[in-house]
From TrEMBL:
Keywords: Membrane, Transmembrane, Transmembrane helix. This is DUF5666 domain-containing protein. It comes from the Bacteria. The chain crosses the membrane at residues 14-37.
Length: 161
């Protein structure tokens, strides 16, 4: 086969245009990925810094936030200020806990919640007003925390914030 004839043929030109088109397509695709990555990174960083951007610098504009940048949605550390036994079948009690900066959170305690005091398993009846606790759970649509684990802290004040 004669190479000069092949390079001047219509088939060679079609292959050359196809390769050129593929290179252009890949360059456009890569540019789109680059732009998309930059936009996603900006959105992610903006979301991560939302509270700091709109609540002001650490410590706030007008008062000290006690070093917390975010609201504790999945748990709270604080003092029990109210225990309200529930009449609903899904939960045993509702706790109101005063956390950092005197923010009060409502904690829903279901029958299957794990309550611990040191290494021992405790019961709901072991919780008392003025006890310090750590609650880990998940937020519900009403802004309450549905407890999964409650740990009762020592009464001697070592756990106070």
């Amino acid at each position: 086969m004669d190479f000069n004839k092949f390079f001047q043929s219509k088939t060679f030109k079609i292959i050359l245009y196809a390769i050129g088109g593929l290179i252009v397509f890949l360059a456009v695709f890569k540019t789109g990925m680059f732009v998309g990555f930059k936009k996603a990174k900006f959105s992610y960083k903006w979301g991560e810094n939302y509270h700091r951007n709109f609540a002001g610098p650490r410590g706030g504009f007008f008062k000290d936030f006690s070093g917390g940048d975010f609201i504790d949605a999945h748990g709270i550390f604080g003092q029990i200020i109210e225990i309200d036994p529930s009449t609903e079948s899904e939960q045993e009690a509702t706790l109101i806990i005063k956390g950092r900066d005197d923010v009060e959170k409502i904690v829903l305690v279901a029958a299957d919640v794990s309550i611990k005091s040191f290494r021992k398993t405790a019961n709901l009846s072991d919780l008392n007003i003025d006890d310090y606790v750590v609650v880990i759970g998940e937020p519900n649509d009403d802004g309450q925390i549905e407890a999964k684990l409650i740990r009762i802290l020592p009464p001697d004040g070592r756990a106070k914030h």
